[in-house]
Amino acid sequence: MNRRFTMKKMLWIWALIVSGLLICAGTTMAGQSVLEEVLAAKTIVVSTDANYAPQSYLNDKGELEGFDISVAKEVAKRLGVQVKFITPDWDLITAGKWGKRWDISIGSMTPTKERKNALLFTLPYYSSPAQFAVHKDNTTIKTLADLAGKKIGVAGETTNERYLQKDLSIEGVKIVYQDWVAKLQTYPTDANHIEDLTLGDGLRLDAIFSSKQTIAQAIRSGCGGGCPMRMIGDSPYYEPLSFALDKSRVNSQSLVDKLNVIIKSMNEDGTLQKLSEKFYHTDLIPKL
Q1: Whether residue 3 has pLDDT greater than 90
Q2: How far, in Å, CA of 281 to CA of 144, rounded?
Q3: What per-residue confidence (pLDDT) applies to 234?
Q4: How far is the CA of 120 from the CAs of 100, 174, 255, in angstroms?
Q5: Of 53, 90, 177, 219, which sees the most CB atoms within 10 A?
Q6: Where are the beta strands (DSSP E) in 110-175?
Q7: Domain layout of the chain by residue ranges
Q8: Are strands 104-109 and 119-135 parallel, antiparallel or unpaired?
Q9: 253-260: long-range pairs with CB below 8 Å, 24+
């Protein structure tokens, strides 16, 4: 019997077995759903904005607080995992291809047609009215028509910017544009243009365009005692807001489906309504 031949044959067989095990392990890993990954990690990583009161902001203790933060914590609780927050720039969140740096965005995002190219969205968990505001000392801008040609501050890469550019598309929402054109000044986040407006009437901006609840919060308690501005006109449109997931991450639909179940349960048991009343002082929760 050729022992050298037998040894080579055995080594060849073992190599095949090891290769097969590695292939099976790789297939298992590749086939693991995002929901399974989150549950296995016992943590869900949530991206949000640290400067977007009352949705999400840093309190006096340096801790994240707000409507979206409370929603995220409740979602994690119902998933049976811990929550970890991360605060990347908004344009990085909306661009997709997160590379697993975070699992989900809970940051009051509108599921626009453009964003759906890069992201997956859940059912809406609340809705938001858009709103214009001017400095409280302004006496010339009384209606939305008076904003024609004025310099308006708006957060960049947002639905509000798209609206002012007359390039906004939201499924199921009828968009009626203003019949005027303004001069747009974009900012990283809403807090920045609110700050510029409050420096003085027409000093840097003539008006701002944000969510009604953000402006209301700023007037109520921003700027160290209430920002000096006032709302003008009716809300030009309402937008549904959803959780977002990275479309490029394979097997993400499992987490979308689970999150939809959680959103429905939080809607049905009144949790979302209570959080809306707490942070927005009104019920902004849609009936699912």
Answers
A1: no
A2: 25
A3: 93
A4: 14, 22, 10
A5: 53
A6: 119-135, 151-155
A7: 34-126+240-280, 129-238
A8: unpaired
A9: 253/120, 254/33, 254/34, 254/35, 254/36, 255/33, 255/34, 255/35, 255/38, 255/103, 255/104, 256/120, 256/121, 256/122, 257/35, 258/35, 258/79, 259/75, 259/104, 259/122, 260/122, 260/123
Q: What is the mean pLDDT of residues 207-233?
A: 93
Residue 20 has pLDDT above 80, yes or no: no
**Which pTM does this prediction carry?**
0.79
- For residues 113 and 92, what is the distance between their CA atoms, to the nearest angstrom? 17
Pick the CATH number of 34-126+240-280 from 1.10.3660.10, 1.10.10.10, 3.40.190.10, 3.40.50.2000: 3.40.190.10
Mean pLDDT over 28-45 rounds to 88
Contact in structure between 164 and 184 (CB atoms under 8 Å): yes
CA-to-CA separations, 208 to 59, 150, 237, 268, in angstroms, rounded: 24, 10, 15, 35
- Give the percent of the chain with pLDDT over 90: 83
- Model confidence at 15, pLDDT cuts 50, 70, 90, reads low
Average pLDDT on 191-198 reads 96
